[in-house]
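Researcher: Here's a chain I'd like modeled. Treat it as a single chain, no partners, no ligands.
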Amino acid sequence: MNALTTLLAFLVTLGVLIVIHEFGHYWVARRCGVRVLRFSIGFGRPLWKRVFGDDRTEWVVAAIPLGGYVRMLDERDPDTSPAVLADLSRAFNRQPVAKRIAIVLAGPLANLLLAVGVYWFLNISGTLEPRPVLAAPAVDTVAARAGLREGDEVTSIDGQAVRGFSELRWKLLESAVDRAAVDLTVRRTGGAERTATLDFGQLGDGEIDQTVFARVGIALAEPQTVARQLSPDGAAERGGLRPGDRFISIDGEPTARSRDVSRIVRAAPERSLQVVVERDGVLQPLQLKPSLVQVDGETIGRIGVDFRDLVDVRYGPLESVGLAVERTWDTAVFSLRMLGKMITGEASWKNLSGPVTIADYAGQTARLGVTAYLSFLALVSISLGVLNLLPIPMLDGGHLLYYFIEILKGSPPADWVVEWGQRAGIGVLVMLTALALYNDLTRLLA
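Model: Modeled as a single isolated chain. Structure tokens:
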């Protein structure tokens, strides 16, 4: 079932991103008066094809779903039929360079606008985020040397308020890439506040990768055994448990951590458990019988308790627009900075991901819920937009590079320059793809 969810989530992700990207090219091309011959989702043999509109545009779904293209009328294309060539005034290659730039730029911009729209929706609909409460940092990490302790709740970074743990991670990651020092205002368990300085300059070259937070010593604290939310008509609610109850023991075994409760409950489907909870300072005995559920082919027990301390993060409609644009811009700039750091060796090339990792994350986020999946979709859409803007021949950014050269020299680059550029672009893309797949397989087999 998980494999099917992963596959479907991956295909939906690819489909949405490709359609949005190619529709950006298509929409602007039509407004610039260019005739579009084919709009294809995927490459290779067509699985579905229809012809619509006055221009008889072919709409195609092809067999290989790893991309797509918009084929426009171009007299340089040897496959263009003589009948279509009669409409040369609408050929892409005969358009002013400004129109060609607009058409090429429209695809990546469409991906960035999709991300803005998703973030706007998430901002106004609200997301449940874990409070930024920290676990005990490992010995001799940056966080430990800064004096951070288990249970510290981060309230601001460099004077900017922090509302959820994901926001904390994002701001810290930006500082880690720059190897900058940041001041965290933290609230201790007793309510006292202090300032701790995290100095990311202590990180070495190549240490900015997926393990950077483990290296720094920043992790989300494990939830306490206080029941925050109960599933309606779940085993816990039926057994008399109330929100705010703290688990003390189950069948005589102390439950100091939420994982202790989960471990015991999972191993006891449909078996009565003698539970002791603390309610308003008084110990209260309960009897809970975990429901039997199937998860990934395994039979486990579940009582319907959520221990996570969550905060509802949401904003007004107008405020959400600015925040969505800011988040999209920051993520795009961050992606470019990370690429630069990888080229200079300051960040690890292990950060580069390919289709296997994307499929895995698509499946994971889809199982977590709509909010997690939409956040992932926005992130990948930004990455796709930024990637296509890189000045690499074969990508949109490569075409833009040629057009800017044309503006500077007054004529298009020589054919041999374009030809060798295409070969170099293919070589770069093959190397990047191979590296991304290698990283994917390394993570998968680790």
